[in-house]
Amino acid sequence: MEWMEGPDDAELSRARAGDAEAFRVLVERHARGVFRLAFRMLGNEEDAEDVVQETFLKAWSRLHQFEARSAFGPWLRRIAANCAYDTLRRRKRTPLAAGPWTDDEGDEVEPLQAVPSPAPSAEREVWGAQMRARLGSALHRLSPLERAAFTLRHLEERPIAEIARALGCDDNNAKQSVFRAVRKLRRALSPAFPVTP
Description:
Elements: H1 9-16, H2 20-42, H3 45-61, H4 72-91, H5 122-141, H6 144-155, H7 160-167, H8 171-189
């Protein structure tokens, strides 16, 4: 599901005037996207839920700072990305596998277990499990800034300018963070995917 960039103007206008019900409508409209972004950055449902709460609390308290000429979605993503980034920094780069990771039913699963395997063979399943473990390990070795930039660029498909604003850096630093993350992931996964000249 795409991030909602819908017509928020009416609710925003009322929310900025102090209408809590209008803000509740905005929360319902954008909560799923905020959670998805936070979960992709943090890999943990509990932390992602905390980021959702923190994001909307900050958004409510800072509505007076929101510039009406810009869209609400990117502004909210910037707050969410910063909250998730702060959580990553507080963790001091703990493994992504630190969890528990859970599926929609609440059952514990391995990190990145949802990566589909095109063939159901046993060898393919073993190979997939090894790759998920390697990818999880490689993601763990990224710095919080690299992980945030990679998530925003390649999982959330955000433009570099928006990533830079979300992470509080210039466009060049955002590009470099994405580049370093991709390079580290390629290096970690290269033995499984040899590059032919």
